[in-house]
Amino acid sequence: xxxxxxxCAVCVSSSPPVYAGEKQQPPCNTGSTMCNDxxxxxxxxxxRSDSFSSFLFFMExxxxxxxxxxxxxxxxxxxFLVLVHACVLxxxxxxxxxxxxxxxxxxxxxHVLHTDILQIKTWQKSxxxxxxxxxxxxxxxxxxxxxxxxxxxxxxxxxxxxxKSHPPRNKDYYVPKKKAFGEKSLxxxxxxxxxxxxxxxxxxxxxxxxxxxSIVGAIESANAISGNPLEDLSVQQVIDCSYLDRGCNGGxxxxxxxxxxxxxxxxxxxxxxxxxARTGTCHYFPPTEHGVSINGYEAYDFSxxxxxxxxxxxxxxPLAVIVDAVSWQDYLGGIIQHHCSSGHSNxxxxxxxxxxxxxxxxxxVKNSWGTSWGVDGYVHVKMGENVCGIADFVTFPVx
Length: 399
Ligand SMILES: *[C@@H]1O[C@H](CO)[C@@H](O)[C@H](O)[C@H]1NC(C)=O
Ligand SMILES: *[C@@H]1O[C@H](CO)[C@@H](O)[C@H](O)[C@H]1NC(C)=O
Fold this sequence. Notes:
The chain is of the alpha+beta class. The chain has helices at residues 2-13, 51-62, 71-101, 103-134, 155-162, 210-225, 235-241, 253-263, 306-316; strands at residues 144-145, 175-176, 189-191, 296-301, 319-323, 331-333, 335-336, 347-355, 362-366, 378-382, 394-398. It has nine helices and eleven strands. One 2-acetamido-2-deoxy-beta-D-glucopyranose is lined by residues 261, 296-297.
């Protein structure tokens, strides 16, 4: 097995200088090597399922920690990828050794090698994408893009799993609103979180129910704004029961509100009907059960009228919107202003505030991809140019 280590050392030393800062022994046994290498004392790294968490595991085991998404962590991730390249070569040698004895095991090794190469291609594409997205950045307030929990996925995989909200089929009732809400003077900064009227960021996992998270978030806030305690309501209930939508396979904010308005369904607490990340059978509760129902809803098209949208946000509460979130796959922080146009709505989120104090005014948007994504689970989107189509489909519940 010594020569296996030698091959690894050679692979690593012939790699680009990014590796130079990392003095650790390369982990040859990557967990995907099916050939038994008992002489190696390197830990088995579960590479196959999720390279980003393998990377974090690797950093904990072998290196110093730096915050996910930071520049040092990105450099290290690249060094990690180089190591993985080296290990693919190690596996290739391992194929020769184990394949000699057992043809079957050799085939298994080849399969592993093949999937490794596909994975590395995905990573390389991610890195290319980050370079492209970051190329427009002018100053530090601009959005920056890089390694996060979605770097493992190709654009197609990401889109097919996470971007499952569609715009309404009938846009007629999305009335364009111009000077609809009077001549209110607006504050420079407003955030419903400051009043403690927004629940914590949720994680939809690989269930395409952003539409449900978006409207349940709006209802949680609207319910608290009207004087009730702020509590997490059941997203799973909406996923399972809204017959106008397709559960984890997608849906729309306005059809979910339509269903809630038609059926007068009471949303129970999240703890009573917890999130399962897959579509299940609708569980009915007796009418006496504690729950939150809506009395109506409104829908607006505020493209060209974002000032009016600000007034509405302040007077009624957080607003459910549908945006184009393809470039959000790689978002780390800052204000999104490029590479995000309107006309391709695919993801539902919740606008909870805005900030116009700096050079670039922006909307503060709550997402449902966990707190490790973006700015503690939030994203900032430039105001005034309908960036990402944020003002196209705006809905809110009437309590
Ligand atoms: C590796 O070795 C262990 C114990 O020696 C054995 O149980 C296991 O099946 C082996 N794995 C493979 C893929 O051959
Ligand atoms: C909500 O339901 C009420 C009747 O319960 C109906 O009058 C109203 O038009 C509905 N709202 C919308 C936006 O469909």
